[in-house]
Amino acid sequence: MEFFMTIKQILLTGFVLLMSFALLVISASGEYNPDNPERDQDDIGQKIDSLLSIMTLDEKIGQMTLYTSDMDQTGAFLRPEYIDDIKAGRVGSIFNAYGAEYTRYLQEMAVNETRLGIPLLFGYDVIHGHRTIFPVPLGETASWDIDMMRLTAEVAAREAAAEGLHWTFAPMVDIARDARWGRIVEGGGEDAYLVSLMGAAKVEGFQGNSLNDLHTLAACVKHFAAYGAAQAGRDYHSVDMSDRMLREVYLPPFKAAIDAGAVSVMTAFNDLNGIPATSNTYLFQDILRDEWEFDGFVVTDYTAIMELLYHGVASDASHASELALKAGIDISMQDGFYHQTLADLVDDGRVTEAQINQAVANVLRVKFRLGLFDDPYRYSDPEREKAEVMKPENIEIARDMARKSIVLLKNEDQLLPISSSIRNIAVIGPMADNRRDLIGSWSAAGDWTKSVTLLEGLKKRMPDVNFIYAEGTDIDGNSREGFSAAVAAANNADLVILALGEAYWMSGEAASKVDISLPGVQEDLAKELNKTGKPIVAVLMNGRPLTINWLDENIPAILETWFLGTTAGDAIADVLYGDYNPSGKLPVTFPRHVGQIPIFYNMRNTGRPFDADSKYTSKYLDIENEPLYVFGYGLSYTTFEYSPITLSGNELRTDGSIEASITVSNTGGYEGEEVVQLYIHDKVASVARPVRELKGFQKINLMPGESKDVVFTITNDELAFYRADMSFGSEPGKFTVYIGGNSRDTQSAEFVLTE
Ligand code: GLC
After folding, report:
1. Check: CATH 1.10.10.10 for 640-754?
2. pLDDT digits over 103-149, tens only?
3. What is the best residue among 121, 169, 183, 299 to mutate for testing ligand 1's pocket, by most ligand atoms within 8 Å of CB?
4. HSE on the CB side for 3, CA within 13 Å?
5. CATH number for the segment(s) 404-587
């Protein structure tokens, strides 16, 4: 026996040495050549094939498995044995683990203790910043500044990649028309055109020109698809919609992100028309792979394969894994179902090793492109970590983005900007000196203790002003005990800054609400303060549209500041004192009442459009149809005037173009930026079309008294839609062009499209 054991050990050692040498040869790819990615793609393809040829089935299934570390928790349960899984080669990617030292520690296990030493992929939800936290995505999108959205993703990638991360579960591009849904905060709002631009910019910012670049992250566009249309705004709920709605509204942002190079896609939790996304071959094979020719990899959301059991489409773990693999899902997140079942499914002939090889190849391709086979530790560098994280220029960029994300909703009698002559100011409310909530939800490795509160920002900006602070009430309690101190503070001041809003956990995942008014007794506090007769500026910090009707009717100035991140207090002070003239525009409609939901600007006209003089028209008995604030709305400290639209022609041929131009003038006293928005309405078509759709915008800067001609080029592309037969294209006929500073107050002109 002894003799045979010795032989076996010699053979085994020799085999391991041979495999390690083989992997070394396979992976010796040298630096990725961004100037000739195609050559590298072929090389990578050969290396993947060689590696697959020496991998066992278990090793392949390990690459299809993703587990969370216990450094952060983003789902229902953790899995303490993930360290053992790494050492045994049962996992190919780890998420929620970051830091140069910790990622190196985990990577050394994978590289040194498994037979082939295939490097781990480290992922994390770097949604709006890694350590330096930027405004929540709904806030960033309110800037309508695509270049800034790209830049903040670039900075986030630099910080995250310096802490050992390779992959971010972002951008989230779920269209959201329902403020009850908590994750509305995490995306870009209600419009497909604007969210498409945001999504593409984020991918470009995260991934840069090459994944081999040390400062970039692999992006993961999510959640595919239509997650934001959850029934009744209730998170994870079912989604039912026509193919036309899916393709015209919910899919374009994903296509834009993938066209921008996103290398991974995450499945949505919801079922779509009864078929869960995670087992939906229509979404992941027909559309993503066949129509869009996506060649990256698909990862599920947290335990989503297991959830096929709860959806009621799978009878057991094997059935769930079989459905997911056949739908085109490459990696299972956290439930371990692939690890538990795929080997047996191959043995039983229910799935093929070829299907597994395809999934593994999709994953390995990204690992090769990241350069992980060249050097598995290249991203885990303590020196770079120290140099990159929260460096001053990152903070400056965050402050600039935060300022640009602020939307001025009201400014009666030019109460804002605050005059520097005002010496006594009461700063009141649960958000006035609040630090914890400023970085919002999905703030990952962000350290809220490093955020600047509104009160701190004000004191820094105006050291000689007497700021009198009173909390007044908490965010969602019903205590009025603080009211009297707040009223006293107001009575001792010349102006009140009233900071109201939501806690960070009131939006984000699993945070749907049926009441979207200000939580607690905050509105009562506002009413009490209003009785003092002191001028009040309301500053809102929230993750969803709120029905602030009473504030809108009674408070002279209102700023929507979302959750602005690390530099919140400084950025708000910059705007309040006019160092920056607010330029934000709402990326989502603010309802007057939750009962109006879903409400969005690009609805269809119906056969009985509202008419105040007629009973039998589309309306409510108890509230108007109009929202509180429309999509694209936002004021400035200055005023802008729009000339009538000039069209270069009144007839557009399908192979031609026309130009719509308008002169925008700054008719006020402040330099300011204006988002000039172009909307188009197809007046008659084989399908009833939205009353208007955003088809372009330009953010311009004007000095007081300055005018600029803004020109939009309209081609057939802007007029195409899914026609009655679901073919995609335009139809001849009349179109109306609208141009203005929001989706309602516009100039208009008409043209005709001819064949
Ligand atoms: C969560 C979220 C998803 C996130 C993932 C990993 O459940 O739905 O957006 O990326 O799990 O944290």
Report:
1. no
2. 999 999 999 999 999 999 999 999 999 999 999 999 999 999 999 99
3. 169
4. 0
5. 3.40.50.1700
